[in-house]
Write a structure and sequence with these properties.
The protein is built from 8 helices and 4 strands, in the order E-H-E-H-E-E-H-H-H-H-H-H. The chain is globular, with a radius of gyration of 17 Å. The structure holds glutathione.
Amino acid sequence: MLTLYYAPNTASLAPHIALEQAGADYRLERVDFEAAQQRSPDYLAVNPKGRVPSLVTDRGVLTETPAILLYLAQRYPGADMAPLDDPFELARVQAFNVFLCSTVHVAHAHKHRGTRWVAATDTAALEAMTRNVPQTMTAAFELIERTMIGEPWACGEQFGIADMYLFTMTRWLASDKVELARFPKVAAHCERMASVPAVQRVMPHHPPRD
Ligand SMILES: N[C@@H](CCC(=O)N[C@@H](CS)C(=O)NCC(=O)O)C(=O)O
């Protein structure tokens, strides 16, 4: 039995979809951000980084969304969530996901989590970081739209872990004040994702948040 520590509509949506797509035996533990539960001693004992997602496995805890997604793809090969037998194609999927993790997620985090980078007392810097989020998220999604996204799925023919992660971040655009309609391929991908049964099953756990 796997346990996914999650918070609604955060990066943890992606592994949640993967667990559902895989038909995995799992349970959910919600981390209440409003109560700052991610920084509670109990949760820090699970994940010292104080972030979600965390996946508790029979061999220990996994963190970092791209790592969790690849683990699930490998643990459930029958679900065909990544091109496991093709090193080049698998590296392309990882490149997609690492870009989402290291660039898009970090750009988005500048909105509310600026104190990771500057002092909490530096309100001018924090406000400037928040103000710039629409621009940095737009730049990242322009790159995805123009140079990265495939048809019909993020990496081409095969539906899988990059789709789950891209969908997760696409859903952040509205709250980041970026119009999805600016990116027709990403918008079509988001619509396609909404019709995937595994996505439909998890969405009640992930209402939009600011
Ligand atoms: N690099 C990590 C980032 C995880 C992360 O920052 N998650 C956010 C939610 S989307 C979080 O837990 N934030 C809580 C906080 O910063 O206090 C990953 O890819 O899993």
